[in-house]
Design brief:
Layout: H1 4-14, H2 36-50, H3 60-69, H4 74-77, H5 88-102, H6 109-122, H7 126-144, H8 149-153, H9 158-165, H10 168-171, H11 173-188
Helix pairs in contact: 2-3, 2-7, 3-6, 3-7, 6-7, 7-11
Length: 210
Amino acid sequence: MLTDLQQTFAFIIELERLKSVLRKTRPVGLSRAENSAEHSWHVCMVAHAIASHATDPVDISAVIEMLLVHDIPEIDAGDHIIYGGRDAALAAAERAAAERLFGMVPEPLSSRLLNRWLEFEARETREAVFAYAVDRLLPVLQNLHNHGQSWRENGITLDQVVAVNAAIGLACPEVWNAVHRMLRDAHDAGWFSAPPPGEPAAPQNKRPRA
């Protein structure tokens, strides 16, 4: 039977696999895909950087814990572009992955990590709402500085980007207003696909409600 420390070491090495999970977004200025471990580090720094812009004060330690664990289930479930939706099968696969991976470490850490992941998924606390906003903000900023790379490669429309990322405004209205202006400029630059026939184009002169 493994000791607590041996279990912890096994978990640490299992986390190495997150470095091989490739995302659709590329690091700014690079031709390779970003991996989920890089993303997890980067969103933690983003959280610190914009915490002062949050509508409500947040426990930044809780936010960082959520952001550190939020993508770990991708080790088993893989990364899926958010604009494709998330069905019940994927949600179940991610939950099973979270239980397996966080179950590798002894209690009470096992429950703490799983509960932080569940908190992020539920988005019912102010910390979870803020953490999710940060998670959405980073790839938007990356795309805005990569000429819309993953949007163009995956046929994403402005309407889709606004609908998915308006959650930023729930935690940080000032940040979302600034980003939305940048998205309109990106649309004018031709970085988005046109909406399918019969669907209205995204409004160009209105700011979304925060």
